[in-house]
Amino acid sequence: MTKRRVALIVAAALALLLLAACGGDGKAPQGAGGATTTPPASGTPGAGELKAVIISSDLAVGTNRFMVGLVQDDVPVTDAQVQFGFLKLSGDQGELRSEARATVVKMMRGVVQEKPDGTRVMVESGEAAAYAADVNFDEPGDWGVSIIPSRGGRTLEPINLALTVQEKSRSVAIGESAPRSRQLTLADVSDLSEIDTGEPPDPEWHRMTIADAVTSGKPVAIAFTTPGFCQSQMCAPMTQELAMLYDKYKDEVIFIHVEPYDLERARSGEGLFPISVMGEWGLQTEPWIFIVDGEGKVAAKFEAFVMMDEIEAALRAALGGEQ
To answer: What is this structure's pTM?
Structure first.
């Protein structure tokens, strides 16, 4: 650790203690139905203040996939390098517990729009990025993260956010048995559009309930995404990343897509009302992708940003291969 980074993290600890004392939690705002709010449109960053927001909505004791987004002048920043320092906060004390260098995950945001004639089109809204790293939180309570960004070879001032780590994950944790949920399938509807807002929708992802899939002895990939009503506009991209693996693994893995909201009420303009399956999985945001192994236990889970290669590594591990 360089002397400069030590100084930055010490300064961050002091700032985080002040933030915690003022009641800040550093969490991203929530939108309708518990979904994360839509990020600003992409473009060329200007000279305004660099800000950060925590994307990960479900942090608990153990290993977590921790992600933040950076924004400048209301524009996502996609060209930074980021170092994290994680501090346990206790009263007026802050202890540095771990450090991690983030990997940038870039994705093109978009939403599927339905035309009056019933056809659908994918409308992209610019590139966004998440800065992600695996972090182990060894106890619950008040924590802080010092985000040290670099751009153009220049280290910038740290951005300090407070966060809360839970004793147990709200969503189904890695290693736990997958809930035996029974979502609507093709057998329950007259038209695929009743249970899928994607473009193109795939009937093969709607032939089996989660309950039947996770007790089949095969690994299962489950996408809780709504390409047509996604608040973060990351659902369609996440679904597409998973879909690129379908042809390669369809004989070994069961693929399932679940729309998080009651689509009839959503299309009527009534609002976004989560279906019961979301509660069974402990999900308060979208999108999510879960990988379940052949024994019916959750092997991996991804929120909001994930690329095909990371999903494939999880699938290969669930199949008994090397990651």
So the answer is: 0.84
